[in-house]
């Protein structure tokens, strides 16, 4: 199964290696193909430089040690080509998930709730954690 992880998942896993999101991320790396969009990598770098500049090496090390499939997010996206979203700034993530043809989008962003698409399935880390515990 191919699973695209949103920026907030990468941030949580990199910053809190003992947390639940990190455990879910580790499971994904072992059991599935993790896909990371170029948009999310850039967004992670921006967030780290703004909020955690002293930990940018933590992000770089994290991205170097994990095995993932990169997906190049298109530079130009037409919102009319994708399902409507509450927060238009999340369009690159949704577009990357759809265009990369992943099975699941894993995100902690509540703006993805209620998007009426069949593929990819959209899970929060808690939902996915509950799923793998069964």
TrEMBL record:
Residue spans crossing the bilayer: none
Domain PIN: from-to ranges: 2-111
Superkingdom as given in the UniProt entry: Bacteria
Family matches, as Pfam families: PIN_3
Coiled coil: none
Signal peptide: none
Classification via PANTHER family: SLL8027 PROTEIN, SSL7007 PROTEIN
Official protein name in the record: PIN domain-containing protein
Species: uncultured spirochete
